[in-house]
Amino acid sequence: MVLTESDINRAFNSEYISGKLSAQKVHVNGNPVTIDAKSVECNLLESGKIALNAEVLVRETSSIEKISFTALPQINREGGGISLQDVEYPSHQELSPELTTALVEKASEILNLRNFDLKGMSLRIQQLDVEPSLLTLHAAAKVDQFPSS
Fold first, then answer.
1. From CA 39, how far away is CA 18, in angstroms rounded?
2. pLDDT by residue (tens digit) across 41-97?
3. Range of 18's domain?
4. CATH number of the domain that 88 lies in?
5. What percentage of the chain's residues is helix, strand, coil (to nearest 5)?
6. How far apart are the first and last CA of the chain?
7. What is this structure's pTM?
């Protein structure tokens, strides 16, 4: 499967994923806050990393905060999804990394292929290739039974 940056950005900003990135409880500077992701932009880099830029609403202060980081996507346990490793923040990042950590964790949850398993069918990623503007996934599907509908 080949995904373009546009495909990934459309998915991150879809109603379904936006719902998963809303009402996240995190601690910022030791204080609990609730955040809602307002927009997410993903860029696929030549280095094999991805760059994520997001705007999040901090409900308690009604402020919009910008989050930026790069990370290396890696296949996680037994090919069951993709996790983001080696997260790096821009040197000018003033916002607490706790917000970024929450976004990284939620992105990893969303990229868990078990969310897409159907009864009698499962997917496992075998290879992941990142190049500028393209993400290529090589996966195997195990089908024990075809869904009836």
1. 8
2. 999 999 999 998 889 898 999 999 888 888 898 988 777 778 888 888 776 654 566
3. 2-143
4. 3.15.10
5. 25, 50, 25
6. 23
7. 0.77
d(CA 70, CA 114): 25
Q: What percent of the chain has pLDDT over 70?
A: 80
The tokens for 22 are 């809303």
CA separation for the pair 30, 98 (Å, rounded):
10
The residue among 37, 42, 86, 82 whose CA lies nearest residue 59 is 37
Residue 148 maps to a domain? no
Assigned domain for 74 exists: yes
Tokens 């346990």 identify what position?
77
Q: Label residues 35-68 b or e (16+ Cβ within 10 Å = b).
A: bbbeebebebeeeebbbbebebbbeeeeeebebb
State whether the Cα torsion 9-13-16-20 is positive or negative. positive
Sheet of 134-143, strand order: 2-4, 134-143, 121-131
Q: What is the pLDDT of residues 2-22, one digit of tens each?
A: 889 998 888 888 888 778 778
Q: Where are the beta strands (DSSP E) in 31-133?
A: 31-44, 50-58, 63-75, 82-88, 121-131
